[in-house]
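dude i think i finally got it to work??
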Amino acid sequence: MKSALVLGGGGFIGSHLVKRLRREGFWVRGVDLKFPEFSETEADDFVVADLRDAGNTRAVIDRRFDEVYQLAADMGGAGFIFTGENDADIMHNSATVNLNVAEACKNRNIKRVFYSSSACMYPAHNQEDPNAPVTREDSAYPANPDSEYGWEKLFSERLFLTYNRNYGMECRVARYHNIFGPQGTWDGGREKAPAALCRKIAETEDGGTIDIWGDGEQTRSFLFIDECVEGTIRLTRSNFTGPVNIGSTEMVTINQLAAMIMKIANKTIHLNHIPGPTGVRGRNSHNELIQEKLGWAPSEALQEGLAKTYPWIESQVLRRRGKNV
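look at this
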C-alpha cells in the first residue's frame, strides 16, 4: 500500500486532500496543530504537532513516504495578511516549518514533496489594473509581493527547488489562487472573501446591508476545493516541477461575487463600502502553463462552486444561532 503524509492535514485544503488520498487507497498520516474543525479526520493516523519544532517534524516524518504534501502555514484572508500586525509571525512560523520539512524529507530520502505556494508572491506592480492583472508564472521576477506572506511564499518556493538541485529531490511547487468551498474557515478573521461574503449574507435579512472593504471593484478569481485537490495531485505525480498556477481564470469583482451569492441565497442585500485591507487591485490565474504541462486546467464555473458552498456556511450560521438562543 502506498503512503502519503499531509502536513496541514487539519486545515481546509489538507482535510479534503486526506479524503481524496484515502479514496485512492493510500495509507495517510495527517499532521497539524489541530484536528479538522468541521468533520472527523479520515486519516489513518493523525498527529497533533507543531512543525516549527524540528524534533516534532522529524518524529512525524519517521520513515519514507511515497508522497508528502506540505500545506502547513500561518495564513488567513485579507483581514489577517494585509493589516501588518501579523507579519513577523507569518514569516517566522511558515519559514521555520518549511525549513524543517525540507530537511526532514531529505534525511528520510523522500523524493516527491508538494509545496503549496500562493499567488500572493506575484509582483504587486503587475496587479494594479483590475481588468488586466499579470500572473504568468514567468512574471514572478523582479520580485515585489504585496505582503510579507507573499515574500515568505517566494522564499519557500526557492527553498524546495534548491533541495531538488542540491539533493536530487523531486519537489513540486504550485501557486494557489483563492481556494474556497465547504468546511473552510468562515469566520474569526482568517476567512477569505467567498466565505466572508457567504457568512455576511447568511447572517443578514433580505433587504439588509453588509460591509465590503474598499469599493468592491477589485478583481479576483476563486477556485473550488475539488479542483484544487485534483490539480495538486496531478502536479505531484507529474514530471513537471513547477512553479505553476492552480487557479480559475473566471475573474470577477468583489461586488459581482456578492451579487452571485445573493442570487443563490435569494436575497437582495445592500453593500456598504468601507475602508479596509484589500490587497492588490486585480488578480486572476494564468493557465496556459498548467494546460501545456499537465494537459489539464480547472474549468468549473464559480457559480457552481458557490452553490455548493453557500448552503454549508448558511447551515453553520444557523447552527451557531441555535446554540446562542
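The longest strand covers residues 27-32.
im so relieved honestly
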